Amino acid sequence: MRKEDFFEIFGELDDDIMKKAETSVNKKINWNVWGALAACLCLIAGVAAAAELFTHSPLPIGGGGSPAGAWPEGVDPITASLAVYPAGERVQNVENATCEKIDEETAYAVEGLGEYLPAWLPDGISFHYANLYETTMKNGTRYALLRAFYTTGEVISSNLVDGETGESFPDSLHDEFAVFVMNYKPATQKNIYQMGELQEFLSSTWDGSTFHFACGGVYIGFTSNGYTLSVDEILSMITSIT
């Protein structure tokens, strides 16, 4: 895991703190500001040191720990956080897990997953970015999840840069929704619909929350993240991948 990934997990230093610290040098020492800055630097130093202990890459997505926050004995918390796997598997059986942030061309080219992303988007919607999660179990079984985000309005440039390629990824302050494709059956207490059931479900009982459906040999999920799409728009996107 790169140190930059740990910095993203914990958050970058607040710009206001940095500006106040700089001002205090030119005028007078503000011990409260410097105290806050020192605490942040100590946190980053500790996190950077911890980064050297792990070889897994890059960003955790949460989960894997118990409700009390403890990790199963013998399980690397970074691997546990990254791992995505079906309900029938256990985190103790995870050998390795990774997450990679990718652009639109790369996302749609992911073999076995990218072709299930929507080929048609409503007016005013554009691709934002995608995360590709890959988990390898100790018995060699591999699971993958591709989660693509789509946004309204114009995508703006971001300071987030991939350490391997030097490529900057887009960022956006607009509303967005996500489509995620899995090569395994997801763990959910809700129904997993068949294609022929979606129109009735979306038209009559859908409450705007995340839903899943089977498509070919994969499972696809949709989450609106609070953004409102019409049933016709959602069905048109789904139709465009089949």
What keywords describe this structure?
globular, 242 residues, 9 strands, alpha+beta, disordered N terminus, seven-stranded mixed sheet
How would you describe the overall organization of this protein?
This protein is of the alpha+beta class. The protein has helices at residues 3-10, 15-26, 31-51, 77-82, 104-108, 198-204, 231-239; strands spanning 94-102, 125-137, 142-152, 156-161, 168-171, 176-182, 192-193, 211-215, 218-223. Strands 1-2-3-6-9-8-7 form a seven-stranded mixed β-sheet. A two-stranded antiparallel sheet has the order 4-5. A hairpin with a 6-residue loop joins strand 4 (156-161) and strand 5 (168-171). The longest helix has 21 residues, at 31-51. The two termini are 37 Å apart. The model is unreliable at 1-29 and 43-65 (pLDDT under 50).
Q: Helical stretch count?
A: 7
Strand order of the largest sheet: 1-2-3-6-9-8-7
From the helix content, strand content and strand pairing, which structural class follows?
A: alpha+beta
* End-to-end gap: 37 Å
What characterizes the major β-sheet?
7 strands, mixed
The tally of beta strands, per DSSP, is 9
List the helices and strands and how they pair.
Elements: H1 3-10, H2 15-26, H3 31-51, H4 77-82, E1 94-102, H5 104-108, E2 125-137, E3 142-152, E4 156-161, E5 168-171, E6 176-182, E7 192-193, H6 198-204, E8 211-215, E9 218-223, H7 231-239
Parallel strand pairs: 7-8
Antiparallel strand pairs: 1-2, 2-3, 3-6, 4-5, 6-9, 8-9
